[in-house]
Amino acid sequence: MVMKTITRVLLVAGLAFGMSSAAIAGSHGKKKMAPKTLMGASGLALSDTCAGCHGTDGASGGPGTPTISGLSEPYFAELMAGFKSGEIPSTIMGRIAKGYTGDEVKKMATYFGGKPFVPAKQSYDKAKAAKGAKLHEKNCEKCHEDGGTNVKDDTGRLAGQWTHYLKSTMADYISGKREMTRKMKKKVMKLHTKGGDAAFDELMAYYASQQ
Amino acid sequence: MSKKLNRRSFIRSAGAATAAAGAITMPSIVLGGGHGKKNVVVVGGGTGGATAAKYLKRAAPSINVTLIEPNKTYYTCYLSNVYVIGGGKGIDSIGHGYAGLAKHGVKVIHDYVTGIDAKTKKITTKGGASIAYDRCIVSPGIDFKWESTPGYDEAASGTIAHAWNAGAQTAMLRKQLEEMKDGGTFLMAPPPNPFKCPPGPYERAAQVAGYFQKHKPKSKVLILDPKGKFSKFGLFKQAWSKLYGFKEGSDDGMIVWRGTPKGSDDNKIVKVDVAGKSIETGFGTEKGDVLNIIPAQKAGKIAFAAGLTKGDWCPVNLRTFESTIHKDIYVIGDSSAAKGLPKSGYAANSEAKVAAAAVAASLNGKEAPVPAYVNTCYSIAGPGYGFSVAAVYRLKADGSKVQKVSGGLTPGKASPEVLASEETYAHSWYKNITDDIFG
Question: Do B376 and A36 touch (CB under 8 A)?
């Protein structure tokens, strides 16, 4: 955990100081330098542009787009860096993340981090959720504390997140398209071997039940 | 046109009601100038106007914000192809009311603005009201250049839809498609650039083809385009051929697109025969069973009436969206000449937030904040088949243009899983952006 946090701090710091506006990939390809543009937009101004897809203040009405409010700042920054580098697979976020400097990402992380996480209003199977609660306790709770509501240790928010998003993210993890931490990989793959997709359905139902 | 949406009769009744109320409260006392509060009037309750009103209240709750919009329900152009024209879900699926804005403290008046006097800073309405403003935000959307479609005019749009402002037009087009016999032709004439929602006509073609495939498999979609290419060109052609047997340069397949070769203007509309349901271009005459003619476009009527235009659109300071012609009037959305930004719903939403922040700053005697803009636009070609274009922009340091700094299209080699995800995101996008605007 300490190692992980240090990596994250370095990552965020690198993002913050390693980039300038000219380093942003322009639309004209490699030949031209990106034109001089006005920098210094506030966290509010930057974050308001996300609302069209992610909901006002990052609270998504779903079902495909995740809620991005109430996340830890390092986690938010890590996600954006992953989208930008392509390390995290995405359809559209990679194209968008490339438009922001590390400093801007940090401002958005602070803005959304300060907004409450609003649990998704979605349907779920009660019986599955009950089983999922047990699976969570056994396999996930150690890092995703408090039933997956706690984001303080720079983990992703699971409880109340949109099922569609959690499912497609988990599919990327399991197929190897997206990298997991060593610890998570061990737990996830073990659970997948043992319980298959059904186990993950139950986990998702549990997270969906926390509204 | 359905009774509910007959604009003229609506304006008549709304006008009468406002005029009656006006006899007691007008002029401008309602707007509470007396308490030293600042008054901002937003003209037009579409994507741009409604967003601006809401975000202005969010930025500065002490400002009096009044939104003037003739209709009680706004029907979004975006997703109208998918939900109504292709999907048959009815126009309620794209309708949004103004109760959400009222909840945020926006005063919503259903009336039609006929004039904006930049000198006296007063707005006049069809209902007879005269409303004073400190700042005015104008977001009237587009109007049509009927001269671009000889034979097809506003009166003719009662039987042949343009369906480029959503609502009754959209419903009419769907109804005509439902009534069409199998083996018929849907004949579409998209507009020349620039026009609102650049991928819209081509998504519509796909959605109509999807409907035909299910219900009228012998039918055709024939597009007579005055352009040689269009937005998401490669992605649409790929989708059309995968889903609807499109072959470029061929009349085989359900969708046939006849573009205009470079250097030729022969495929422009020469004449529309409304009764005979045919369109004549320099290449010949084509007959259809259901026609859809989308005329060339310009800024909405009030922009011209208020003297905010230069050519067809309204020049603005791109940092604030304040008109470069009239001080204290801001123009956002499709009507503005927002160099670098597309005429899309997302762009209007983004521009509205920039303008709202600039207006709030200006009323506080502060410099406008550094703007940030984004556009994201999804198209759905069929079930499980979506794609997008997105961009992040910054203002060029000299203020001359909104410069794209990243973005682009869904890759042409995107997997079926990606295309399916994009379709899901498109629906989520709709939910979230309409909540952001009207919720």
Answer: no
Query: In terms of residue numbers, what domain contains A109?
Result: 43-113
From B11's Cα to the closest Cα of chain A, the distance in A is 31
DSSP class per residue in B203-272: HHHHHHHHHHHHH-TT-EEEEE-SSS--TTHHHHHHHHHHHH---TT-S-SSEEEE---TT--TTSEEEE
Q: What is the C-alpha separation between A102 and A200, in angstroms, rounded? A: 34
Chain A residues with CB-CB distance to B410 below 8 A: 91-92
Interface of A with B in 91-150 (CB under 8 A): 91-92, 95-100
Task: Please state the pTM of the whole predicted model.
Answer: 0.90
CATH class (in words) of the domain with range B15-141+300-369:
alpha beta
Residue A3 lies in a domain: no
Report yes or no on A119 lying in a domain: no
Residue of B nearest to A54 (CA): B432
Summarised one tens digit per residue, pLDDT across range B382-435 is 999 999 999 999 999 999 999 999 999 999 999 999 999 999 999 999 999 999
Q: What is the ipTM of this complex?
A: 0.90
| A74 and A106 belong to one structural domain | yes
Q: List every span in chain B annotated with CATH 3.50.50.60.
A: 15-141+300-369, 146-293
- Residue B7 pLDDT > 60, yes or no? no
Task: Look at B421 and A168 and tell me if their CB atoms are within 8 Å.
Answer: yes
Contact (CB, 8 A) for B335 and B306: no
pLDDT digits 0-9 by tens, A123-171 = 999 999 999 999 999 999 999 999 999 998 889 999 999 999 999 999 9
Q: Which CATH class is domain B146-293?
A: alpha beta
Query: Looking at residues A90-102, what average pLDDT do you find?
Result: 97
Residue A31 belongs to some domain of the structure = no
Q: Answer yes or no: is A32 within a domain.
A: no
B310 in contact with chain A, both atoms CB, cutoff 8 A: no
Residues A130 and A195 in one domain: yes
Q: Do A149 and A75 share a structural domain?
A: no
Query: Mutating which of B319, B385, B432, B434 best tests the A interface, going by the most A Cβ atoms within 10 A?
Result: B432
For residues B181 and B289, is the Cβ–Cβ distance under 8 A?
yes
Structure tokens at B80: 């109208």
Instruction: Tell me the C-alpha distance between A166 and B325, whole Å.
Output: 50
Residues A101 and A140 reside in one and the same domain: no
